[in-house]
Amino acid sequence: MSRAGYILWLIAVILPCKAIAQGLIFQNPANSIERRTSFDVFNHDEIIFEKYLDITFDMQLPLAEEVGYIVRIIDRPSKQIYNVFYDGRGNDYFELNEEGRKCIIMSPFNRNELRRKQWFKVRLLFDMEHKTISLTIDGKQHSTRKTSLPGQLTPQIIFGRSDYLIDVPSFAMKNLVIRSSAHNYTFPLSQAQGNDVYTAAGVKTGYVLNPHWRINDAYHWRQLMSYSSRTVAGANFNARRQEVYYYNSDTLFIYSLTSRQFRKIPFASPCPVQLYLGTNFIDESNNRLYTYETFREGKRDEEPSIASLNLDTYRWSTEAIVQINEGQMHHHGSYFDPRRGEYTIYGGFANMRYNDMFYTYNVNDHHWSMRHDIRGEKFPRYFQAMGYDKSRYVYIFGGMGNESGDQTVGRRFFYDLHRLDTRTNKVEKLWDLDWGNRQNVVVARSMVIRGPYFYVLCYSEFLSDSWLKLYRFSLRNGSHQLLGDSIPIHPDRIETDANLYYDPLLRQFVATVLEFSNEKSSQLRAYAINDPVLTEAQFAQACKLPPNRWYPWLAAAALLLTGGGLLAFQRARRKRRQQLAQFSTRPEMEEEPQRPNSVCLFGEFTVHSRTNHDITYLFTDKLKQVFCLLLQYSDADGISSRRLGNVMWGEKPPEKIKNSRSVAINHLRKVLQELDGIEVVYRNGYFRLQMQPPFYCDYTELKAIIAAGEAMERRMAVLAILHRGKFLEFMNMPAMDSLKNETDERLVPTLTEIMKQSFAAQEYRVTIWCIEELFVIDPVNERAFGCQQKVLKRMGKEFELQEARRRFHDEYRKLMGEEYQETDSAPILPLF
């Protein structure tokens, strides 16, 4: 890297990660109007703008081809309404409309160019003095005269969903500035949670429904897809095409990161190689995927060992029949040099031995060769990561093995970095870390090199329930940081594999986890996290509310303590929700009042004390996680102190784990003293929560209703709980995934039965609520879809019926990668 490039890289790294990661993403679920994002900038406050109204913000385009409204400006006194409309379906233009009248500005744009930029500036200027309106997209300005502009505006400014404008593209925005001659409001949109929106000065000003705060995507891995195969399969990521590949002998599954859609492509003829591990690599310049098996017992001489798939025609070609007679070489490292057309592997485990040899396959002469010319210090190992800097050096990090290569001698974990010079073929050790008392880890096969750092996924392969964690290491001295949260992995079988990739266009890391349940069946999951990835400390700082947040809260508390304050607040909130939901087919449900001595885990995490005060703020993210873990295991003997420590602080040394666990438990006990009927108990090495009336938890209440078979009789109580939101939606913690899945599995038959009985009893409001909740759990639930059509048809809602069908078909296409099939004779599915 040049000196100038290095300096630019350091500047980029030193920039505050929070500022880079910030933003508000607008959600647009096809199956729910009510859950689409709406951002009211001034939250109904009336502010007068004189001379001009200048609105600017940074915008990021949706990944998919979408259409909808960006922002709506309503001037209360004059009743003039303007909106900015976006069309990214091929024509690609922004449109400024005088609502209900005409389009006054159309601004075409180059979608590929704006996507490459990631962020671009949007400006909307109402010049009341000169009677002009201008719309500027990425520096390209379009203006028009508007003589009817009043001398001042008192605008309601709403981004996203507003009234009957329900089509919202999934765009992102940040750094919103609204100003005039007398006002200047700046909204960084750098929050991590909550519905209240704060200015840069820390003043609570706006309100957003259904926000997705972008900074979370720089700390939490988000799952992109999951698919399974009953036969041996391989996986890879094509950075040039931004596609995840998952293939077995007869089918290729493709997930596009840009369209977020699946494609299923059957091969015209099966893969010539009999797949055993599904190891593979991609030659992006020639657009081919090579699948190979280093060794297969009993292979006939004429049987292929390497084949390539043309990623344009999706046809296989046999490349080679030779194999390496060292065995399968499980978990070897590898890299591909596109200039030489050479794929090189190193290390691996087979036949009770660790390997220390390099082998190179040349795609042009179709032959493996042992690299006797590579010399230098290297130990037999497997589970190491390798990465190529695309110019000269190959880096090899970590792994486990020993100097002799004999498995019976035992193994060591390595935390060293070697560098192979591809010009001299010499290997040298750059550094070796002392991992101390921390839990030992191995690394996933692939390494991402960016500037003076490399990134790897580490996990403890000796644990059945383990977690992949992203580390950033300095190439120079090995200094390192743990980034983001973790990804679950179950490495019970040696075939299980994980890989790390980088998408330069979307500027995100992509991880794939390929888990084998037996020697043939596997499941692939893909995840992504935005770059730069935040540390736990950086994310915790981002989650804090602005410094002067207490002033508005105190003012609100004073209002609520006055005679009609609470009633007025509740009425205003209810009215707001009704206004935004008026075009939804779902009837509005009354909100349950908050109970004293309660913890709610559906929707937002909330805790109310014995005096019914909201004490949620006392729970940090770590404390929420500890509470939920204890709750998960409280039906049995509890969770062992050792498992609790490993789950919560597994990356720390044992002594620090013990200290962190003690601090967290003591803190939780102290906070729970504000409630009656719940306490943390410790018995025989196990922690659990002991609960009794008057303590209330929506999760335990729902579980008790279902277990007692009273779901239909208490259907309104069940739906009121679910109406708060999805179970543990505030938490992205691998250890809680099983509890989330179990809860969903309980809810589906329960909701289906309530849906069935309420439909038969013509309680259509209840039926619609059940359908909505089923779609939250499973967006392509066919029974819910069939019932939804019958209900809307009986209610005479023809427009809503067509809209529901469109949304379901769109969602099915996105998730399943194929069209939903309905026969003409029976377009509506049988309900039961």
How many domains?
3
Report the major sheet.
8 strands, antiparallel
Task: Find the CATH superfamily of the largest domain.
Answer: Kelch-type beta propeller
CATH architecture of the largest domain: 6 Propeller
- Number of DSSP E strands: 53
> For the terminal residues, how far apart are their CA atoms?
65 Å
Shape label? globular
Q: What's the assembly state of these chains?
A: single chain
Which runs of at least 5 residues are low in confidence (pLDDT < 50)?
1-16, 549-587, 824-832
Tell me the helix content: 10-25%
Q: In the CATH hierarchy, what is the class of the largest domain?
A: Mainly Beta
**Compute the gyration radius: what is it?**
29 Å
Account of the 3D structure:
With 832 residues, the protein is α+β, with helices and mostly antiparallel strands. The protein folds into three domains: 22-218, Jelly Rolls, CATH 2.60.120; 222-535, Kelch-type beta propeller (Neuraminidase, 6 Propeller), CATH 2.120.10; 596-778, Winged helix-like DNA-binding domain superfamily/Winged helix DNA-binding domain (Arc Repressor Mutant, subunit A, Orthogonal Bundle), CATH 1.10.10.10. The chain is 23% helix and 34% strand. It contains 15 helices and 53 strands. The strands form twelve sheets. Strands 1, 4, 9, 10, 11, 14, 15 and 18 form an eight-stranded antiparallel β-sheet that branches. The protein has an eight-stranded antiparallel β-sheet with strand order 8-7-6-5-13-2-17-16, with no helix packed on it. Strands 34, 35, 36, 37, 38 and 39 form a six-stranded mixed β-sheet that branches. A hairpin with a 5-residue loop joins strand 43 (466-474) and strand 44 (480-489). Helix 11 crosses helix 13 (764-777), helix 12 (737-760) packs parallel to helix 14 (782-794) and helix 14 (782-794) runs antiparallel to helix 15. The chain starts with a helix and ends in a 16-residue tail after the last helix. Mean pLDDT is 88; it is low at 1-16, 549-587 and 824-832.
